[in-house]
Amino acid sequence: MMSIPHWAVKGAKVVCVDGDFPYCTLKNLPTEGAVYTVRETCVHPSGAPALRLEEVRNDPAQYIEAFGEGWLKLSRFRPLITRTLEQDVAQFRDLLADNPTRVPETSFQHA
């Protein structure tokens, strides 16, 4: 049984990376490349992490395991990253400023 990743929490922004739902019976489905908001998460009875989205809602229906709104596989989504390259580089500059020790270039062996 898989667990739910730390980034998959209510209110988190996610991007759909797999919008191909060939066997899905849900009427409303996410679109690949679109950004959504996590409404709730669970570990589905199948053992896979799943979620529901604020922007995508479906009527409750009878499923083998229960009656309710269907779940979407969490593996079809990734967290929305909003940091820029400049922010990432600035973070490393701050780390270097705190520890100015550098490895001499001659200590590397060239293959």
Q: SSE order in H/E notation? A: EEEEEEEH
Q: What shape does the CA trace take?
A: elongated
Give the biggest beta sheet: 5 strands, antiparallel
Low-confidence stretches: none
* The number of domains: 1
Overall strand count = 7
Percent of residues in helices comes to 10-25%
Characterise the protein shown here.
This protein is of the alpha+beta class and 111 residues long. It has one domain. Helices cover 13% and strands 24% of the residues. The protein has one helix and seven strands, in the order βββββββα. It has a five-stranded antiparallel β-sheet with strand order 6-3-2-1-7, with no helix packed on it. Strand 4 and strand 5 form a beta hairpin. It is elongated.
